[in-house]
Structures are given as structure tokens and as C-alpha cells.
Amino acid sequence: MFASLKAIGGSLAGVALPLNEHDVSIGRDDTNRIALADSAVSPRHCVITCTADQIALHDLDPMFDRVSRHSRFAGLAASLGVARPLLLQSMYIFKQPRIGGEIDWHQDATFLTTQPSSVVGFWLALDDADISNGCLWALPGAHRGPLRRRFRYRAGELVMETLDATPLPSTPPVALEVPRGSVVVLHGLLPHASGANRSPRPRHAYSLHLIDGAATYADDNWLQRPELPLRGFA
Ligand SMILES: O=C(O)CCC(=O)C(=O)O
What we know:
Elements: H1 2-12, E1 24-26, E2 46-48, H2 57-60, H3 62-68, H4 71-79, E3 85-95, E4 103-106, E5 114-115, E6 120-125, E7 136-138, E8 149-154, E9 157-162, E10 174-176, E11 183-187, E12 192-194, E13 203-212, E14 216-217
Parallel strand pairs: 1-2
Antiparallel strand pairs: 2-3, 3-13, 4-12, 5-14, 6-11, 6-13, 7-10, 7-12, 8-9
The site of 2-oxoglutaric acid has 11 residues, from strand 6, strand 12 and strand 13.
């Protein structure tokens, strides 16, 4: 199992989120089962995602397909004015009791760039999320600022490129404490982060990122889906 996790982690190193070096990205193993790491393997937290050629839970797994294409998510996207929603990327995030690590401040558009920017995150709390088990944090109003970084291919290499060195505003961050079953909607330019899970309780979440098909998807984004065309909510 560890070998296949390493292989998957290698192919995804740091792509889905700004993972710390101890975090483990996991996906489908050699036999196409979802591969899970336990705390012996992952000292921090675990993210289930898919290998580069098996991109998204919502397009690969019937249960995640059903949840992701629920009419309430479709209605939410419509109410946000997303003209032609395309479900781009999804992941199941485990923040395990006491060992779940923090996720640094980032903007989702760093990883999923379109012109104009259109990425929206739907973050579904599968457990009550609070400060003690590593809830999300956000900087209110900071989505009005620039996109600061891009994680993209340059000359065949994945690089983190600084676009705008404007520091994050000094506004106090707000903890997005939510009960299980809540959806947090994340604007693609909103700087957000999450804390470590120092509690005895898990903090699981399902995160789905969509873009507007009316925008142009960058051809140097880390995530390209040539063999798995993007679909909307239908
Ligand atoms: O669940 C987390 O801890 C972070 C999730 C996140 O940053 C995202 O879904 O964009």
C-alpha cells in the first residue's frame, strides 16, 4: 500500500491543496480501489483525491456523483450566477483526530485558474467543524484583492509562481465554525486556511470545485482533464 501511495503522492505532489510535506495525497491504488492511509503512514492529515489520470471523485464514483450533482448544489451555483457550471475537481478531506494538520492560506484560483477567474468551492462539512478540530478560516472581504500566486506548468515542470506580492490584508481571520451538513461557499479569490485538528474528534469534509464554462481554463494549470471531459450538474 505504501508504495502505491507514494506513487500517487508523487504524481500529485502538492497539487490538490498546498499540502505540507508530511501530508499524504491518496487516491486509487493499483487495483483501482480507493487507497486509504492510516496514521502510521500519514503523520498529519489525509486527502483522498485521484491520480492524474483519474481526476475527480464526482466523475468516477457513483455516490460522489450523486452528492455532487444534487439539485441543491446546482441551485446554489445558479444563485451565484455561474452561467455554465462545470464540475472540475473534488476531494474527500480527512482531518484525523489529534493528527490532522493545518492547511496554509491560499486562494483556490491559484490552483484552478480561469480567465476571468471563476472557480468556486463548495465545502461540505461531514462533521461539526470548529476551532478545536480544524475548521476553515477566512479573511472577510479579501476576495476583492488580487490573485497572488499560480501553481502551473512551466517548461514541463510544476512551479508555484508569484503574480502579485501584495501581502494578505491584516483583517482578523474569521473561523468558519459550522455544524455537520453545512456547505461553505468559497469564492476562488478568497484567502482561506484551516487549522490543525487538536481534538479527539474527526473533521471530515468533501470539497468540490467548479468553474464557469464561459471562462477560459488555463492550459498550463496543473489539472488537465483530456480524457475525462468536464460535465455540469446534469
Ligand atoms: O478542508 C480543509 O481543511 C481545506 C479545504 C480547502 O482549502 C478547499 O477546499 O479549498
